[in-house]
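User: I'm putting together a teaching handout on how multi-component assemblies are represented. Below are the sequence lines for each component of a complex, exactly as they appear in our records. Could you produce the 3D structure of the whole assembly as structure tokens, so the students can see both representations side by side? Please keep the chain order the same as the input.
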Amino acid sequence: MEGVVAWLIITLIKIVVILAIVLGVGAYLTLVERKVAAHIQRRPGPMVVGWHGLLQPLADGLKLLTKEDLFPRYGNQFLYNLALVMALVPATLVFAVVPFGPEFEVFGIKVKPILTDVNIGLLLVFALGSMAVFAIALAGWASNSKYALIGSMRKAGIVVSYEVVITFAVMGPIILAGTLSTYDIVQKQIEQNLWYVWLQPLAFVVYMFAMLAETGRVPFDVQEAEAELVTGFTVEYGGMKFGLFPLVEWYIEVLSLSAIAVVLFLGGWSPINIPFLGFIDPLFFLGPLSPFVWFILKVSLLFLFVLWLHWTLPRYRIDQITETAWKVMLPITFVNLVLTAVIAPLVWR
Amino acid sequence: MIQWLVFLLFSTLAVVSALGVVFLSNPIYVILALLSVLVSVAGIFFVAGAELVGALQLIIYAVAVTVFYVFVLTAVPWEKALKKDPFYRVEGLFSFPLLLLLYAEMFLVFLVGVSVSPKGQFREFIKQFGNAEVVGGILFSKYFLAFELVSLVLLIGMIGAVIIGRKEAQTYESDTP
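Assistant: Of course. Below is the structure of the complete assembly, with chains in the same order as your input.
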């Protein structure tokens, strides 16, 4: 009985910590994005609210919360609100299978910094990731506006095509690791002294492309397309309801997919890797904290990379995007998958 | 104890939303109820410890299949979606015996399946190797022929889709510009 109680308490603490981190960091990433964008365009960005605009997200949140709650005249109120829930919940649920660091001991209890270490964690990531389509389709349909509908159809088309690509792209690392559990994949990389990005560069590039497409980042943000579609499927949403969609798409999903990319290709919480030889840890002085710092560093590096692309590139047309998915990306992942499946068992085990 | 509570939650949800699929009139609501059925069935799989089957249920049924329904429906105009006229009344009547036959077949398969299914023989293997390995092992040894046949059927389906979807060669005189 005591074991069950301890387990319940630990799980509750984990849930609270993960939710706080995800939603809090998600909100503050808006400031990071504005600052990075500003410096890319050689301007200072938000400077007024707080020191270098540090309180800007709070001000933004306050503004969005106090705005009038508008609703389109012939829309469907129930579906309109349901879309919000269906956008937020799967996106945050993905973090249940993200391992933040190695197992550690507190007060004699072993704690894994991952909410549920299911042995099919990766499948769960992609199942939940593609649930985003429902939110988008519903938001577009319930708004009863043609801009919203066109935006949601575009976005749903992109997500459907790239979900296939991303699932095949991660097959390479899965074959190398021989497991679907996110925690074990990182363990395997540490045991084999190898980040899988060294053996799977193609899969990594394709994964990054698919990640940009799924999260609606430039160069794949046709569903926003301010010039032609106003802002796509979020046109009819106002106030905090509007704020929620970019928060989920641009920050929470980018964060979760970057974390999964780090887990699959960049060795999770392990320090810098020299292929087949070992790991070098310049942060050794942090002691037991260093794995967590490495994980956060890698995720933020990927996030900054995404921001850098966002504020540098123009956008593709919708037909170019889906054509790239089916005619370029998918064949590349097939070639990668077949090569890995043929070669890996010969030299690996 | 907790397992039973969660199972009860998911199974009631599944039954209630299945009723919703049958009785709701707005097609979008019907699809959402269907989604809810599929997700709660996946939840039941997770409670039973069949994580792989649960995840596949989520990926294949709850996402890949249902998405296409949503796709079709979002393209249907608003007024048509809310129409309540019962179409195909006569056809429905004619197809009723066939429906009964199908249900009888399902019932039979269920009974036969229960009598021949392994009872706890795989539990040791699952503990030792994990979910995905056991399913793969069984699929590629005991049920290999069935597996290959199913993939053949899928291949035929794919070829059919390509043939239907390809651009038709011009076989008639076209006067319109």
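A couple of points students might notice: The longest helix of chain B spans residues 89-116. The CA atoms of residues 25 and 113 of chain B lie 35 Å apart.
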